[in-house]
Specification:
With 763 residues, the protein is α+β, with helices and mostly antiparallel strands. Helix content is 33%, strand content 18%. The relative contact order is 0.07.
């Protein structure tokens, strides 16, 4: 069995059941120089005789009688085909066959078989058999296998010197084996060249040029590209063969089994691109030295139009057993980390929940007891949909999934070809969006293709005969918006891609640093990279952005991609619109106090939805809220004043907007508690108006802090809007302050309770 790339280049080869190494080839694929050399040297009357050349046999017999030894065999090409096929039916014995090859009875038998072959096969078919099975030294048989083994090229590119050498080898393949005895091989080759010149096959000048070449060949060893992809194709072929045999009538099954023992070779075609495959494997090998022990990696590159896989690397180095290189991680089921977030945002766009600049909340929040944090262990506060996706923030994504429903999200992905594997008996939950279920690299690549093809994903195809399977994952409009978001921005440390190829990409890291991902799409290709340990053990310090993304960058820069000259045009139904923060509505359609910021957003189908309902406070009519007139407590003198409708969880980022007593009551009711049982928080150790000074001899001030009213909840401390600590509320801790000026310290929990103090730091 041999697996070949799309251009016919062998990727991996398995010896035949009899141990021979052959490569299927048609006469049209063989260099005419080789066919000229074989017929000109071995049997120049091949086209005219009936299997036996009487004149040659008479001459050989006379030489034998006169000299007492064999001078020339007198064998025709057809007789050599008979000699090749006969041992294959009886069980090959090279030593014995060669020792008896000139015995009279063997010669007579070859003559009979040659006549029989001529009656059954055409001259073309006989030449085809010879070219396929002629012994070429060691386990190598046939001109194509010999050409690729010794010269590392297809037989159609053989030079005259190479063609003459391969024409000479079948006479004594062990004696003239070029990888072991190059001097003998060259002498025999020159003998063939002289014979071809003497018989007028090639001119003296052509022969002289051919003799200049020195016999230098590659040693016989296994060579392969895409070994795991080839293994996958071979397994599929064997499975289909077994199934077909089981379904066939017993007579047909017997015939197939009989034919399978006749030395036939199977050629399995793949969609792989030789150049891209070699590049992918080289990139992985170059990076392997920077990976810790036992860490492997996988790469998949797919053509967006045809869905054909162009590069498939299931591990770093197939020969490196320390990295479990035999495990195909293109098909391995692993946690996808944050790589599913683009599909969640596309779903929210399609359902009219958000536009590209909708206000989301990145702050401590609880979702039925689930309290997600961010990878960077910090919170940003108010963010747009675009910023949340570009920066891969967890809390906004969990918030959206909670509103859309984990079951609906899982069903949407499944319909598009992404099957999320849950633990047995476990129902879809909010952890899905952070990698709480398993998937495969090949499924992610097929799904990401939707961003470049109008929302339609596809199943990657490894064989040209594989069916084309596509499914819609999102609308054309949401695919454009999400791709635009992922293409234009993100973290400053995102690797820079050379050339304007329109790459939109996303990274992901699973829990415990077990999996690092980077998946991207260009106009022409979709690429996926996975890095991790196949056994699932952690790989600390290695995550999508610093491990998988650099590999993705190298692969993209090696693609034969045409630079994009103009930006992509938005499809019908996608338009630019100016919106307001915090309302989320179109500018000019809301009260001025609800348009503190203006942003330009992509809107889908002219839908400009308002900011998502606040989880911690109710909706307030006409932009008003009850605000206390003294000491932060509601009394009889509370007054009705205009306010800005920022979500309550953003109090730490908008200190000028105080949370009213009525809103606190609603928070308590939302979490199944009364305002009395859900006590107010109070900072201990620091009060508003406090002035701190540096400790003598030090460059900073230190203050011991605590909280009253935490009731065992996890608390988040933010200094000037940046997270500085999170942990159990009952624990005291020390805050170091070095920067002079006015600061604001906020403590909050996932239920929206918060309290803040302002203080001053002086030199």
């Amino acid at each position: 069995v041999i697996v070949v790339a799309s251009d016919g280049t062998p990727l991996r080869h398995w010896p035949s059941p009899d141990g021979a190494w052959r490569h299927p080839v048609q006469l049209e694929e063989i260099s005419p120089l080789y066919l000229e050399a074989v017929q000109g040297y071995e049997d120049r009357w091949f086209r005219w005789h009936f299997g036996v050349n009487p004149l040659a046999m008479i001459r050989a017999a006379g030489q034998w009688a006169m000299q007492g030894q064999v001078v020339s065999g007198g064998s025709t090409l057809t007789m050599q085909v008979a000699r090749i096929l006969e041992p294959r039916q009886l069980g090959r014995d090279e030593t014995g066959a060669q020792g008896r090859s000139h015995a009279l009875w063997v010669k007579l038998r070859q003559m009979v078989r040659a006549v029989q072959l001529e009656m059954r096969y055409s001259k073309r078919e006989l030449l085809q058999i010879y070219a396929q099975y002629a012994p070429m030294g060691g386990i190598v048989e046939g001109v194509e296998a010999a050409s690729r083994t010794y010269f590392n090229k297809p037989s159609k590119y053989l030079s005259r010197a190479e063609a003459a050498l391969l024409a000479a080898l079948p006479q004594a393949p062990s004696r003239f084996r070029p990888d072991r005895y190059p001097e003998r091989a060259q002498a025999q080759r020159d003998k063939v060249l002289d014979q071809l010149q003497a018989r007028g096959v090639w001119t003296a000048a052509e022969v002289a040029d051919a003799k200049i070449e020195t016999v230098v060949v590659n040693p016989i060893r296994a060579q392969w590209l895409a070994p795991l992809a080839a293994e996958r194709l071979k397994q599929a072929w064997e499975r289909e063969r077994r199934e077909a045999a089981q379904q066939a009538p017993w007579r047909q099954r017997w015939r197939r089994l009989w034919r399978s023992g006749q030395g036939g070779e199977t050629r399995l075609e793949s969609t792989l691109d030789t150049s891209l495959q070699a590049t992918a494997e080289r990139v992985l090998l170059d990076r392997a030295s920077s990976f810790p022990p036992k860490v492997s990696a996988a790469v998949l590159v797919m053509d967006n139009d045809s869905l054909e896989i162009k590069a498939y690397a299931g591990s770093i180095d197939f020969n490196d057993t320390s990295r479990a290189a035999h495990v195909d991680m293109v098909r391995g089921v692993r946690s996808p980390g944050s790589t599913l977030k683009p599909f969640l945002y596309a779903m929210a766009l399609d359902q009219g929940l958000v536009h590209s600049e909708s206000l989301l909340v990145d702050a401590p929040q609880a979702f039925s007891g689930y309290e997600p944090g961010n990878f960077q262990a910090a919170f940003t506060g108010p963010v747009s949909v675009s910023e949340a996706l570009q920066r891969s923030l967890n809390v906004p994504a969990v918030d959206l999934l909670d509103r859309l429903g984990p079951q609906a999200f899982q069903a949407q992905l499944r319909s598009g070809g992404v099957r999320l594997r849950m633990a047995k008996g476990e129902a879809p939950n909010l952890s899905l969006i952070l990698g709480g279920a398993g998937t495969q690299l090949q499924e992610l690549v097929g799904a990401y293709r939707a961003l470049a093809r109008g929302g339609i994903g596809g199943q990657p195809r490894l064989r040209p005969a594989d069916p084309r399977i596509e499914a819609r994952l999102m609308s054309e409009g949401s695919a454009f918006i999400v791709r635009d978001i992922l293409e234009i921005g993100g973290h400053p440390d995102r690797p820079r891609i050379e050339g304007n190829v329109g790459l939109a990409w996303k990274t992901g890291t699973s829990y415990g640093f077990r999996d690092a991902w980077a998946v991207g799409v260009t106009d022409r290709y979709t690429l996926g990279v996975w890095v991790g340990r196949p056994d699932g053990t952690p790989n600390p310090g290695h995550f999508g952005a610093n491990t998988a993304a650099p590999l993705l960058r190298q692969l993209v820069e090696a693609l034969p991609e045409t630079p994009r000259r103009t930006p992509l045009k938005p499809p019908a139904g996608v338009s630019r619109v100016e919106v307001c923060w915090p309302s989320g509505l179109k500018a000019g359609s809301d009260a001025p106090e609800n348009c503190r910021q203006r942003r330009v957003a992509w809107a889908l189908n002219e839908t400009v939805p308002p900011t998502l309902p606040d989880r911690l406070a109710g909706a307030w009519a006409q932009g008003h809220r009850l605000v206390p007139d003294a000491q932060g407590r509601c009394g009889e003198h509370a007054r009705d004043v205009p306010w800005t409708e920022w979500p309550a969880a953003l109090q730490a980022w908008f200190p000028e907007e105080r949370l009213g007593c009525e809103a606190q009551e609603q928070q308590a009711r939302a979490h199944g508690a009364s305002s009395r049982s859900l006590a107010q928080l109070e900072v201990l150790g620091l009060r508003t108006g406090t002035v701190l000074r540096r400790t003598p001899g030090a460059d900073r001030a230190t203050v011991k802090l605590g909280v009253r009213g935490a009731q065992g909840e996890t608390l988040y401390w933010l200094l000037d809007g940046k997270l500085v600590r999170s942990g159990e509320g009952d624990a005291d801790w020390r805050l170091d302050i070095a920067e002079a000026g006015t600061h604001r310290l906020t403590v909050m929990d996932a239920h929206g309770r918060s309290v803040a103090v302002s203080f001053e730091m002086r030199p």
